[in-house]
Amino acid sequence: MSGSLRQGPAPEGPFDVAVVGAGAVGCAIARELTRHGASCALIEAGPDVGAGTSKANTAILHTGFDAKPGTLESGLVRRGYELLGAYASEVGIPADRAGALMVAWNREQRDALDGIEATARENGYEDARPVELDELYLREPNLGPGAQGALEIPGEGIVCPFTTTLALATEALAGGCELILCAPVAGVQVGADGSGAHRLDTARGPVRARYLVNAAGLRSDEIDAMLGHSGFRVRPRRGELIVFDKLARGLVNHVLLPVPTEKTKGVLVSPTVYGNVLLGPTADDIDDKTDRATTAAGLASLMEAGARIIPRLTEQEVSATYVGLRAATEHRDYQLRLDPDRRYVCAGGIRSTGITGSMAIAEWVREGLGSAGLELNRRPAPSPVRMPNIGEFGSRPHQDEELIGRDPDYGRIVCFCERVTRGEIRDALGSPIPPVDPD
Predict the structure, then answer these.
(1) 44, 78, 89, 162: most buried by Cβ count inside 10 Å?
(2) Rounded to two decimals, what is the model's pTM?
(3) pLDDT value for 263
(4) CB-based contacts of 224, cutoff 8 Å, min separation 6
């Protein structure tokens, strides 16, 4: 299977729709379209799905409480929160509505909480409420000194970004989608064969499709320019993050959010669905779309912030550091646009809320393509996939004595930190979208 996904000439088509970009948004779009009867090609520059921004983020399941009211993002994140929450339960994506506390550390931030609560209500989120100091320190006893108050957002959650993207892609494949990996798009020609169809020139050969969806993340502005548009520019916003050992998990009970600034949502401390604690991200605008290197200054600034928020956190072992590049543009909103004359949809400028909004964005794209003439018929969906559990909220194979009795490989632990077994690795290598490298 891996050879057909990643090697040899790409299937040329013609397809009904070509979707460029196999991150969470692109995979959700491909799944949505195949569920409605469209033939799709999902084209990805990298060797795997979800290998860009979708895997390197804070993995927050956003309620959309703090989105700018009236924007596309506001409505789509709110809808996506409900869709992804239900889907996670259905297919086994690790997720938990742990709740969040937005902590104010000075008078100015404390005064800003009233406006943020009002914004939440304007966005249709009614559950945000002020938390006074006594309650705050009772609920987060390891919080550093000096907090001035907090706003509780009980619906905020955490989710597994890896399983989310993989589940969406796997279901798209089950519905008949062609996944074409290792195929960066070098050019797009419209009507090259006289039919008005798109011809995408990829590293694995041409792919033809009647409709084109641009979900190329950091490269979405480049694909948009190939269609003659110039409405936005992606300038990556680099976010460095630190993952602490599972022994740190008891230090934090909620997602601890900062009061946001005009530029960034700031540095948070959050539990993860894997039982670790996450600290980050930084927010530095850079020009290189491939620069995923951590910096001494960035990590030092995170540790300094972590010491203020949870002082004992910096005493814990660091399991990993990583960098995510967000597809920041000069606009505050998603860059979602339908060009019916060219049978083209742009889904660019999707930043930190992209995983939460992915399934709602897919609905928006499907409806837009339908209005542009794509024939879509609801058909019975394929049996939903059931993803292997890699989170802390369900039984793992090494804990299942009956499973180990049937297959001892599920009791042979290969990675003792994460309790990964030989059986799980074997299953991953034999899955519909097998891994090709340790990343």
Answers:
(1) 44
(2) 0.96
(3) 66
(4) 214, 230, 231, 232, 346, 348
